[in-house]
Every structure is written in structure tokens, then in C-alpha cells.
Design brief:
With 191 residues, the protein is an all-alpha fold. The protein is built from eight helices and two strands; from the N terminus they run ααβααβαααα. The protein has a two-stranded antiparallel sheet with strand order 1-2. The radius of gyration is 16 Å and the shape is globular.
């Protein structure tokens, strides 16, 4: 493994794929609300701080194959490149903190919906790219952010147009990514 190996991206993708396969093997479905909740999805109306781990586990639970594939495609294409630019530790923090922020947004703003998927974390990645594209914080991330702007816009539109999407989760993750983008720079760069 080289210095720029996207270790975290691969771990997050493999974790999601393995958990999806486990759910299919054991339960035969990944779309039943009770099974989703049993396997780590978050339901805001039932959330208590005792189950703090439910702020993280939904990042690995996906509702159907199309949900898994679309999130893993975005993670592997965009996440892989960003991780090589900022390093595995910063990428892991961005991914997890954005995911937690998105899931907290679900608890407070959409509590009556069962929510799962890596998209809150992925919207954090997009939020960081948008911040760098607009404010030109780090040269390579700024370039990558500008070249990804179409992906950012399409995903934001998709959030509001397609039924069944967790708007609170996406926007919560996106806002977290915007804020973290002000502080996360490329490896070996000084602010």
C-alpha cells in the first residue's frame, strides 16, 4: 500500500457492501423497516442517547441494491480522490462527522422516518468540495471541487426532487462538510 492508498474509502465501501450482503443472507431483504432498524438504521422518534451508536451505524445500512450502488459509486469515485488529497485520517473524520451531523438532523427534523445510508457522509464530502471550490482554500481540492460542481448540483437537486430521500440527512451532512471544509486542507499544506 502506497502513501496515497485510499484506505478509509475502501474500508467504508467494504463495510457497507459486507453489511448489505449479511442482511440479504440472514433476512432476505434490506427494505423492511423493522429489519433496517434491527440492523442499525436510525428512527428519530425512538432515538435516545443510550443508542448513540445509531448516529454512525446507518452509514453502513442501505435500503435496497440501487441505494447501495449509487452511494458506493459516489464514495469510490469522489471519496477516493479526496482521500488521496487530504489523507485517510482527515477523510475519516470528515466522513464520520458529516454522517453523524446528517443523522442528528434526521433525529431533530425528520424523526418519523427510518433513515439509513452513507449519503449524509457523502454529502459532507460534497460540502467540503463546494467550500473549496468557492473559497479557493487549497489548490488541488479547489480544482477537484470545481470539476465536481456538476455532481454537487445534481445531487442537491436529486435530494429535493426524488421522493423518499432524507432531505434532513443530506442537508445536515452537506452543512457539516461546508463547515469542516473551512478547516480541512490538503496533506502537508499550511493555512
Amino acid at each position: 500500500m502506497g502513501k496515497n492508498f485510499p484506505f478509509a474509502t475502501i474500508v467504508f465501501a467494504c463495510g457497507s457492501i459486507i453489511w448489505f450482503m449479511y442482511m440479504m443472507f440472514v433476512y432476505g431483504t434490506t427494505t423492511n423497516s423493522k429489519i433496517l432498524y434491527l440492523n442499525g438504521a436510525i428512527y428519530g422518534a425512538e432515538f435516545t442517547i443510550v443508542e448513540w451508536w445509531r448516529l454512525i451505524t446507518p452509514l453502513f445500512v442501505h435500503i435496497g441494491l440501487d441505494h447501495l450502488l449509487s452511494n458506493m459509486l459516489l464514495l469510490i469515485t469522489v471519496g477516493r480522490v479526496l482521500e488521496t488529497l487530504i489523507g485517510s485520517f482527515k477523510f475519516t473524520m470528515l466522513y464520520l462527522l458529516s454522517g453523524v451531523a446528517g443523522n442528528l438532523a434526521v433525529v431533530f427534523y425528520d424523526p418519523n422516518t427510518i433513515t439509513a445510508g452513507a449519503s449524509s457522509a457523502l454529502f459532507g464530502v460534497l460540502g467540503l468540495l463546494a467550500t473549496h471550490a468557492i473559497f479557493k482554500i487549497s489548490p488541488y481540492i479547489t480544482y477537484f471541487g470545481k470539476s465536481s460542481f456538476g455532481i454537487i448540483i445534481i445531487n442537491l437537486i436529486y435530494t429535493f426532487v426524488v421522493p423518499g430521500i432524507s432531505v434532513a440527512g443530506h442537508i445536515g451532512g452537506f452543512i457539516a462538510g461546508i463547515i469542516l471544509g473551512l478547516f480541512i486542507t490538503e496533506k502537508n499544506s499550511v493555512k
